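Possible race condition, two jobs.
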Amino acid sequence: MTSHNRSVKTVFFDVDTQLDFLYPAGALYVPGAEGIVAALARLTRFAEIKHFQIVSTTDAHAEDDLEFKHWKPHCVAGTVGQQKPAATKLANGVVLNEAIDVSAPQIIVEKQTLDAFSDPKLRPLLTALEAKRYIVYGVVTEICVRFAALGLLETGAQVELVTDAVQSLNALDERGFISQFQARGGILTTTSAVVSE
């Protein structure tokens, strides 16, 4: 259990928990990812009950996206696979646009690259949210989660990675990222620790 002031504003940061990644039928399935869905659901429901906002990144690719030269086609905007499962989706979430209402319980940041911070709207959103603590989870640990977690650390906020609510493709790369994350001040936590607060 990490120590922090309960009055510190906390935002949950949910990275790319989409059907194409989480389940074997998905277009770019992350092996083992279905095993974290129960933890993802616990985190989502806890955030909802405690009125913690959730910022969710999602891939939203064009059919001919340049990324598909490196990865097989996935999360094409408007397809079933691009959608979020019930485990990580609130009924009244909104997609981030230029004039977003930052009071929405879930704000979805649609991205076309691995790094959510490549979306010029993300930093202004985080500034407006004024969070001092981020709880980070999702897929893939050493790729998109890494970009998100390290980018969030640059804001000066406390950043906690939920180790049983992430899934990697390469365990060695994941360990390298976690070492880098901790060296920069990141904190490791678990779903049980988060939801027992």
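Job #2 (started ~2 s after job #1):
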Amino acid sequence: MTVPAEITAGSTLQWIEPAATDPAGDAATSAAWTLTISFRTNTAGEGATVAGTARSDGGWDVALSAAVTSAWDAGTWYWQRKITSGDDVVITGSGTTTVLESLAYSGTPAAFDGRSQAEQDLEAVQTAIRTIISGRSKQYSIGSRSFTQLDLGQLMERESQLKAIVARERAAERAAQGLGDPKNMFVRFG
């Protein structure tokens, strides 16, 4: 396994990193190499580095504690995995992970909108369409853009695009939860 694709802020994560390969193409195991994974985001002062613990099979156990992830902002984080042995430093991987906001709170909970940006945009476009069609307003603004009755075709086209995006996001979420794709139909013949 490698760095999880999603991390919830304030949670503890553990995974196994397999043995790597050194620059000469030989196995780089935890017996002679040290593994570290660094995390950064686009907020100044935020980041973390975690070291792997040697395993008997040559890989590394990696653990991110809740104390480390609790201060992480929700959004895209970048990671870089490297192994070192003496003066040798080898980057063995890099990528991104999505940090999800924790739903834990103390005192009175603040408002929380867990919808994706596409879901929020879809609601705004549908509200604009309803407002213009109902005649409550001749013009409607979404962000810095204004729409009139002449722009209904443009709004309806954008609504269609956003519905498709939201449907794909929901299907991917169901698949990630092990619920499968609702478009697949299975038939048993006896």
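Residues 152-176 form the longest helix (25 residues).
Logs attached separately.
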